[in-house]
Every structure is written in structure tokens, then in C-alpha cells.
Amino acid sequence: MDWYPILPPVLVGIAAVVVPGFLVGLALKLPVRFCLANAPIFSVGSMTVASVVSGWMGFRWGFLSFTSITLVVTAVLWGASWCWARGRDGRLGEGASGSVVMAGVLGVGVAALMIIGQIKKSILHPDAVSQSYDNIFHLNAIRWIADTGDGSSLSLGAMTTSDGSGAFYPAGWHDFVYLIYSVFPSSIPVATNAATLVIAGFVWPLSVFSLALALRPRDRVFVFSAVGFSGAVVVFPSLLLKWGILYPNLLGYAILPAFLAMLIAAVDMVVQQRWSGWWPVVPSLIIGGSAVTLSHPNALTSAAVLVVPLVLIELVRCFTGKYEGPRRLSCSLLALATLMCIAMWWKVRPAPETSTWEPKYSQIDAFGQFVSNGFNRIPAAWGMSILVFVGIYWALRSRRHRWIVGSWIILCWLWVVVASEPAGAFRLLMVGPWYADEIRLAALTAVPAVVLAGLGMSHVIHKGAAALSDLCGARKYMVRISSAVGLVLLSFSPILLGKFGPVDEAVASTAHEFKVTPDSILITTDEKNVLDQIDRLVPKSDTIVVNPWEGSAVAYALDDRKVTSRHSLSQPPRKFEAILQHLNQARSDPKVCQEVRDQGARWYLDFEDTLNIGAGSKGLYRGLEGVEHEGVVDPVYTSGPVGLYRISACD
Question: Are residues 255 and 373 in the same domain?
Fold first, then answer.
């Protein structure tokens, strides 16, 4: 299938994550460079809040409500800036020259091209569907928003409750995909893949750009390298697209670096006691915090874990008298921030019963994977790892950046625990916020990795330039020629690190999860043949009886037909209880046919649970066992062992 049809949805997605956030940044009186780098996190924050407000006020979620609410918020922020920030310094960090900004933009371009190329090879074609049971929920949630008009995180979970009551589920990713789908409503998978391209190819590099500006705003080599390397890491986005599929985490982690930049600015404000600059920092934190929390709460926990070394270092300096002037307020705020980071790690976590993943490796193996950036049996990325080690050396010599090494060490510890520690109370305590899932923690390592690799590249380039200058002496033209050659090599370094070996292996592994084969996990070749006929055979007003563990529930998203259960982990709606429990007894139980007629459930979709994952849930759907042999249904369209049937016993 040609990739050109996905270009318009991608452009709409880029507009949705850039334009609103850019306006919010201008309203906060941020310089243009910060408006651009932080546009995605501001846009996602506005999006998630606007969807909640829309749901609360009874407005239908879409571009109209998103635009209207965002414009109102922007106007309020503009007015507040005029009242409170006149004549004040509205920066989130130190100044960056035009050449540094251009280096960052070039890095974004390099990373975007690399990631887009990887994703095209991973998802194979624009309307490909991930062969993951989690994808049933994500795809169906887009259809649910289209049907109900409600994209609020406070109510999206209603899609899976037995009585339709509202339940919290972070809807940031789903809100974004629906915005794309609302403009191009031909295919939910196309909108989903367009969103993936935008999030991984543009949101993630721009977010790293924001963090790079916060860390070393005057180092063009570092800014370019860190941003460019965001397209060369093995673990992001490939692992999140292969496992799960973890779309909400993809968005949460993509904007995480920008949120870290805001946290760094807040800590710097406290340390420097620049209280007059509170206006751009505090509202930025609120908007950014809303974005990461409503994308995925463990992105907020991840931010707390990554920034706590910085807070602790500054807290120690504060109590040891390293600050000039009054210290009481600064020390109190830093102590409070430390407690908040610990509280987020302690409290912002899913229910323990959802953290069921078992360890897979020995401690030595797990440690080796971490230091070599070769997670999930992917070949070691030694080029990136060497630069990370050089960056660690350089960071340890710089008082300002030592905390990044602390973040890297904490992630190393958490990764070794989740990958090798036996299941139990200690492991659950340490890594419960990430569902005790090694993939989520492996993907998180991309954040310190690109920063440290950027520091390593900067150190190598600057030391090389200094040595060359000493060697050439007064022959300045030699220095300039050699520097130009070095810059060219620097420009290609992310491509050389990311194009070959480990990244290609990760891409090929991910591509396997998007293929439709005779034994695919979610939709097999035969099942796809049946799904392709549903739009022609089943009236739109009717409902299809399904066992979601067989993957048949995706008919809701892919064919726009109502189904009895929208997700494998949901409790079946009570109104279908007689059908799901006793359909195979329809000829002797009048309640079944009465429910069939009342609910318009005249069709049965019989698929295969390829891996028998739903064996423990068969009791919820025992009425579907043997319906063909009981003479309850007649085949309408079959392909191999699966098919669409009409419930003929209730004619």
C-alpha cells in the first residue's frame, strides 16, 4: 500500500501538537525557541485538559471544542502574563544563540527522518494493526469517543465497565488520535499510525530539544548530538511498539524530556531564589504535569525518579551552607520536592494484581543489557554505549550535570530489579509503578542515554578541536578546514549509530508484530478475510456477539459495528448476560432469544484465541461454546476455521 495517503493525517497531527502549544508558549512570554521546543507538551496538556472540560460541560470532543477551549485558556494566560510578568525575565533557562537553536532544529530534522524511516519499516503499511491484545482497547476507544463524543480521561474507562459507569483512564493518546480521525474518518488504523509517526518522529525529538536547551543552552554540539541521537536509540520507540502495544506510554515518554526541562527550571528558580520569575515556570509545570499524567501516570512517576537526584544534590548543598543569602525557604521547598518525588513513586502506581510480569534474566545478564543498550535480546549498541560512558566521565567532572549520572544509576538499579529479581514484595515495591514490566523501564532509559551520549560527543568534539588547535598553531585555515570536516562527521553520527545493527534488528522484530499471518496473535489471515466482509453483510444497527479474547471485538473499531464486549479485560455488559451465558441453549431458554431481539444481537463472530490467553475467562462466555453444533447459528461467511454466523435459533 502506498504511504502517500497517510501524509494528510500526519500533517493534521503535527498541526495539533505544534500550533496550540506554540500559542500557549507565546502567551506565557517564552522566547520563540522555547515555544517551539515545548509546543508538543503544551499542546498535549491543553488537549487533555480540554477533553476533560468538554466532557464535564457536555461538549462533543473534537477540533472545535479543543480549539475553543485552548483559545480561551491562551487568552487567560496572555492576560495573566500582561498583569504579572511585565518587565520580568520570562525564560525557562539561559539564553541560547541562533546557531544553537539552528543546531537543535537540524537535530530534530535528522532524528525525524531516521525515526520515520524506522516506523515505516516497522508497521509495514499505513493501515497495519498491531497484533497485541491491548490494541483491542486502544482501537475500540477511538470508536467509543466517536460514538459518545466524550474523550475525557475521567470517563473513558466506561467503555469496559459492565454498567457503563465512568472510570478513569488516561486518554491523552486517544484524544490525539481521535482528533486526526475526526478529520480523516476513513480508517482508525491509519489515524493510529499517523499519530505514531507524529509522536515518535516529531514530539519526541522536539521534547529532547527542550531538555537539551535546559541543560547546556550554549553548546551547539551537545544540543545537536542529544537531539540527533534521539533518533538512534534502540529502545524508543521500537520496544513500545513491539510490546503491549504501549501507545499511552509512547506519548507519555515522548513528552517526558520537556517536562524534565520544566522541573529543572523550577529547581533552578528555587536554588537561585529568583522568585520574580515564578510566572512562566509554575504555569508551565501545571500544563506539563497535566500532559504527562493524562498521557500515562507512570510518565509522571518516571519524571519524579529521574529528577530526584538533582533535587537531593541541591538539598544537600542548601543544608551544608553552599548557598549565599537566606536559605530557609529554598531548603523547605527542596525538602518538599524530595518528599513529593518519593510520594509519586510510592503512590502513583497501578493495582498490584496488574503487575504480573515475571523476571527473565540473571543479574549479570540484566546489567550487561543495560550498560550495552542491548535490551530485550537486541544486539548491543556499543557505539551509543561508548559515548554514554564518555558522557558519564564528563558529567562527573561538571558539578552542574552530575545528577544525570545519578538518574542513569537509578534506572540501572530499577532495570536490574525488574529484569532479574524474583517476583515478590520487594520487586513489586521497587518497580510496581511500571507494572513490573521490563519493557516500560527499558524504554525509559532512552532519556538519560541520549543526554549522556550528547555530552560524550560534545566532549570528544571539543577536546579534538582543542588538540587540533594546539597542533596547528597559527595555521588557522587548517583548524577551520578540520572543524568543517568534524561538523560534517558530527551531522552523520546519529545516522551511523542508528542505521545499522541494533536499530535494524529492533525494527525487524517490531515489524513481526504488525504482520497478518495464519497464526497471528490478534487477527489471523482468515479472521481478516471475515472482518473485510462484515461491512457488507451486517446492518449497522445490529450487534455482533463476540468473545473479546479471540480478537473479534476489534470489529467495533475496524467495521463500526456494535459488539457485546469491547475489550478482553472488561466485564461483559449486564444487558448481554443471557446471551453470553446461555446462547448455546437458545432453543430451550426463551430469555436468550428475548435478549437477542431486544439488543439486536443477531450475529455471532467466531474467531480463535491463538495463544489461549483467555482460558481463565471462559466462564464469562460459556454460552458461546458449541453454538455451531447445537444448531443455534447458521454460517454466513467463513474462512478456514473462523467465520461470521447468524443467530438463526431466534428467527
Answer: yes
